[in-house]
# Entry
Amino acid sequence: MYIEKVPNRNSPPAVLLRESYREGEQVKKRTLANLSKLPDDIIDNLKLALKGATLSMTEGIPNHFEVIRSLPPGHVMAILETIKKLGLDKIISEKYSG
# Structure
């Protein structure tokens, strides 16, 4: 697969996502998608991705946050749902009475 710009006489060039294949000894092209309406930076990223480059959505964005601690929320959600299903949420008080 590759991206090809096809010139048009009276309009901007068409940007096409294509693949090449063989029929006998002839090499032919098949258009998979018309990418003409996409912004240039997205087309450039697609070209890089098709060449096998690793793309990051955070490239060029400074890292303003530092993760100090991270906990998986799944186990807490499972316990809360079990408490609700058993009706314990109506019995258990939010305030400590000890």
